Structure formats: structure tokens, C-alpha cells
Amino acid sequence: MHHLLRLFVQRLALGLLTLFVVSLVIFLSIELLPGDVAQQVLGQSATPENLAAFRRELGLDQPAHTRYLAWFGGFLQGDLGNSLISGLPIWDLISERLYNTFFLAGFAALISVPLAVLLGVVSALYRETLLDKSINVATLTAISVPEFFVGYILVWLFAVEFALFPSIANLSEDASLGDRIYRTFLPALTLTLIVTAHMMRMTRASLINLLALPYIEMAQLKGASQRRLIVIHALPNAIAPIVTVIAINLAYLIVGVVIVEVVFVYPGMGQLLVDSVAKRDFTVVQTACLLFAATYILFNLASDLISIASNPRLLHRK
Amino acid sequence: MKKFGSNLQIGRRGFLAGSAALVGLSQMPRAAQAQPQKGGTFRLSVNQGGTSDTLNPAEASGSQQIMVGWALRNNLTEIGSDNKLKPELAVSWSSDDAKTWVFKLRQGVTFHNGKSLAPEDVIASLNLHRGEESTSGAKSLLAGVEDIVAEGSDGVVVTLSAPNADFPFILSDYHFQIMPVNGDGTLDMSGTGTGGYTLDSWKPGVKTVLKRNPDYWKDGAAHFDTVELLLISDSGAATTALVTGEIDAVQSAEYKTLGLLGRDKNVEIESISGGFHPTFAMQSSQAPFSDNNVRLALKYGVDREALVKQVLRGHGTVANDHPVAPSMPFFDAGLEQRAYDPDKAKFHLKEAGLDSLSVSLSVSDSLFAGAVDAVTLYREHAAPAGIDLQVTREPGDGYWSDVWMKKPFFTSSWGARPVPDMIFATAYSKGGDWNESQFSNDSFQQLMLAARSELDDAKRAQMYGDMQAILRDEGGSVIPFFRNFVYARRADVHHGDDVASNWSLDGYKAIERWWKA
């Protein structure tokens, strides 16, 4: 355990370093975008005078490194700063959206992760049968179709034809959990269809790989049933690759769902990020990107730790 | 002295309604149907705006900000459903010379916070758009204002540096909403106003909830109990939500799916001809566009009828290379419409000493739906005249800062203005900040100034007619069509006999004008 703790601290430090590099990359790439917030807000009604007044007001006339230090320094101290356009604290702007994004991702993960692992185990168990092939064809079809299309098909089926679920996720502030689940069901289902195949295929492939190893043969010779073989003998050794894939997909559920958000008018982080890039609201973009990067780093860290903990050879390394 | 305002209230419409009641019953069913009812929740979807939108009217630009702003607040004047100028917080206005304007404020109007409307509120609200430090998008509209002072307890006197007969129209612009001043003299921009609705929750980019103001001063307005305004940028999602009954009205419907939408009995589609128009603007101070023959060749080289039919699917009217729409006052119906004529285009090219012309026209689909299609068709129309028009697709992001008025020949788009002077002064005036075609014409300039100081409408009509002709024949912009506002609502949502054509959704005032029954 001591080893694991040291590893955790090491990885966390590395993660912070990565975050710093990412923050630089984000800041520099945003600097490269043509136009600035003053031009975007004023649009067609920009004149040299009101542009200059706008920039002065927002401190955009300061040099880039001054603005970077002010922003990153604040971020490290937990001060996310204010939106350039509305002047509101960024935390107020994103807290609810962040919650919405995590809620949707969590909801989709709760359906998709058990489903994918179960389907993976089943298809490994009955590999090369009709069941295995049907599962593969179904999940691969779902992942091959663009996600907005999956979304529209579900809307057509469940909102227009059968009127079971709302076509847009019009959330009210004081919605109960049940209402929330009802209103986010279609987007969660869309995301489930998109991420399941990847995780299911990895589960299946890792299991089938293991099934060719001598210790499985030994278990077989002992007379272990097929089910026991897979669940007790093979699955624990397949945890590392499966967890890695799950981590990647969970991160995707949080940072990569812009299109699903648009289709279902879901007020999450993706829409905010698109808006902010379009309006050149730099501080919001930087903060959102940094939060996304932190999410990736944390998920990777968690999956590494779980992989190591699941493998006694790595855990008790000499 | 010419007096405006309260006497305008009984217009043609009021007269007609009155006489119909005298004559007989023929109008009865319609009148009964048009009886507004109070109550209900109006869920409206708009498609312009974002999370960073504020309630500061100086920064207002999209429908989310404008519609919420007008639900919460009023202007001094407004454009009514019949497209006429109406008194709002000002009951009347007068001027001797179109230079000094005296506005009499409505008595007994209170803001949502209980404060009574006073001249100080009007002065501070208008001054938000003036002065060195102002970041307002409407700064240039008030550039000619020299001074704004109070006169007694209910008067505001605005002094202009030069006459402007349309000044009361300018004050109907969505930027000039009236807000109350706080005790310390600052403006309360939190959403407090005199409007028909109070702000319940403001979540820009997601949902805004408004509650009816029970003390609203305006009669026959603000019928819904609650209004939910959602921002839905994806038109597919908005249309589906309308069909499934999750929203009651959408700001714009896509031409491509109108046929299908029209089949739904629960949905009504509106197609209102308005003044929104694209321009293909040439920098007419630069070669080759400095030669009017080249400009004329490009004007004759576009088949406007085809564009209206194919790009707008019929939801628009052809334009005549000037920005005055048929729905606007002083539109000159007698001015001959320019038609597609490749031979004439060729003739003008020859006059300019050219056999052929190769130009590239910048465009982006972010300007309006079908913008790239329109330019692509234009390319085909111009080819027989010996004009090689290259279509340059530009990113929508940054179009206004990097392409507009930067490239020699580019597509632009303009919203409707209530009077010709506002668009002339903004986009065609010599030395103006937004004179996108670098248009410079002395007689146009003189007519513009003369028309501003003229208070006789007949003489003004003559002048504006002349100006439309000048733009048609010498202007630096090809103006192919005026686009209709096309939007849809559930059949249980009703509006009066007229629907304003200055903006979508009844001049962006559906919230206070429409009702559910």
C-alpha cells in the first residue's frame, strides 16, 4: 500500500505539471485566434472608438504575459476569475452547467459501463455464436452512426412517434431527481449507444486473449465451468485494460458531448464552451479547458491506480 | 409647431375598426376571435444569444437580449404591430425645427421597484449610449445628440447638432430601453423596468423566466401569466420541440422543412415580409469597382427572381439595389425594378473598357441561411455576361472583424430599420463608420441632410424617392432581395390582425402582444 501511495503522490505531481503545460497551450492557442472579445461582442456595430473603450474596460490592452499570470495565478488560488463579457464570476457561470454535465455523464455511465462489461463477458462466453455476433453488430452499428443522427432517431422514435420522453431537456431549477432522469433519458441513451461498443469490445478481446493462456487451460482441465472460468479466473486479470478503456470513455462523456447537448438543448459545459469560443470570452474558455484537462488527468490517474492495485506483481514490486 | 404622438393613436386601423362596427356585422367573427385572453405560460424559443449575454441594453445584439429587454422595459417610442411609430413612455413629442425635441413623459408609470418614471431615468438611460467611455453598439445613432435635459417633472428636451425629423423613430431602437436610476445616480441594469413582465430568473443561454407585471401601464398588453424564453440554437431541435408541444413558438423556421411543418394542424407558420436584406458590397473607391459601369454590370448580372425562388423558397421579395423595403415608409413604388439582363451587363463591361471581369465575392453561411447558395447561384447568373465571380467561403467566426469592409467585394446583411434615414445614415453616408461600399455621392448626401430637416412628408417622400434612385443606379451594393421573417407557433397561440415586420416574432414583442386561447 505504501508503494501505491507514493505512486499516487508522484502521479499527482506529474498531473499538476501537465496541467501547467496545458494551461500554457490553451492560453497561447486562444491568443492565436483571430479577433478578440470586443470585436465579437460589438460585431457589425464596432467602431474604433467603442472597440478601444471596450478593451480598456476589460484590461485587454495589457500584454499577454501579464494577463496569463493574472489568470493562472488566480486559478491556482481557486479564483476562477470573471467572464470577460458578462463580468460575472466564472464559477457562477459554470457551476450549474458543470453539475449538469456530470449528471448526464454519470447517468450515461451508470447505464453503459455495466451494460458494456456484461455484454463483453456474455459475448466472450458465447464467442463465435449468433448471440456474440448480434451483440457485436448492434454495438458497432450504434458507434458507427454519427451521434447527432442517433440522437435524432431516438427523438423521432421516443418523442415524436410514441411521445414517451421530451425531445428537449428543458430542466427547471427545482426539478426533482425523477423529473431530471425523465428529461435526460434520451441524451443519456444516445451517449450510452455511442460509448458502449468500445468498452464491450475491449472486455471481450481481453477475455478471449486470456482464455488462450495455460492457467486457463489448467482450470479447464480441473473441470471448472465456462462461466466460472471467465468470471472467477479470467475477469480479474482483464481488469487493467478494461478500466483503462472505461476511463477514456468516462472522460469522453464529460468533455466530448457538445453535439448531443446541442441536439437535446441540454445546458452543459459543451454549449458554454462553444459559445465562449465564438464570443472570444477567453477567461471562460481557459477555465473550462483547464477543468476538462484536469478531468482527463484525474481519470487517467484513477485508472492507473486501479490497474496497479489489481495486479499483485505491480503492487508488490521489489 | 408640429405635434406628434397622442394624435397618432387613432390611426387608419382604429378608424376602420370603428366604422366596421357601425356598418354591420361582417367583421364580427374576426373581432371575436381576436379578443385577447389573459393567462397561461408562453414557452418561446429564440436562436440568437449566448451564456455571456447581459441585461445591459448597450450590449444587446441578439434576440435573447432584445426580447427579454423589451419584456422588462419600455422605450420612449415603439414601432407598433402596424409598423407605425407609437408613443410608449413618451405620450407625445414636438419640434419646431427637427433639432430641438421635447418629449412629454407618461404620468403615473412606475418601475418594478416602485420608483416613479422621471426625466432623470430617461436622461441616464440615453446617456449610457453617449460619450467617450460608452461601449454601446448604438453610440453612433446618438452621435448627433448635443444635450439632453429635463424640463419640469415630465419633460425631456433633446437638442441635436443638426436637424433630424426621424429622431423619435431612432428612440424606438432596442438599445434605448429606459431603466431607473439608483439613489447614487447609477443605472439599475438588473432588469428593473416599466415593462409588462418582471424577471423571475435569468439564465442566459439556457432559460429565462418572466412573470406578468400586474401593474403594467399599457392597456391590452402582457397577456401571459408566465413566459419561458429558451435559447435553442439548433433549428432541428427547436422545430421538433414545437411539433411535440414542448414550446409554443420558434423564432425562425427553416425553409427546407416548412412544407412538412405546414402539414401539422397544431402549428401555424408566419411569413412576414420585412426589411432584412443581404448586400453584395463593393468597395467603390477601389478599382475595378470605382467605375460605375462595373457596378452596373454586377447589378444586371444577378437573377433576383431566381434567388427569391430558390434560396428563399419564395419567402421574400426582390430588391432594387437600395435598402428601402416595400414595408417601410417612403418606399418609392414607382421606381422601375431592375431585371436580370446579361446583355446589359456585358454592355456596361464594354463601357468600362473590359471584355471580361474576374472578381471574388466573400460570403459565410453565418450571415443568413442560404448565403453561400445565393452567391453560388449569382456566380452562375453572372457567367453569361462574361463575369467570372469566384465564391470565397469565409469562416463565420470573425466575419465582421476580418472580412466585412476588409475584402474588396463581400456579402453583408442588414436588419430592418423603421425609416430610410436610419439605414442611409448608417450604411451609405459619406465617411460613416459602416459605409461598407465606400459610397460617396454629393447629391445623395445633400438630399439626406435636407430630408432630415424637412417636416413635410410629401416633400420628404420626393427626396427619399430620389435617393433610392441614386442608390439603384450608382450605389456600391448589389441588393438582391428582402427576406421574409419566417417563424412558427402552436395554433393555440394568437396575435392581433397585424404583425410587425421590423423584426421576427411581431417586432420582437410577441411576449407582450400575443396570447393563448
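Chain A touches chain B through 50 residues (CB under 8 Å).
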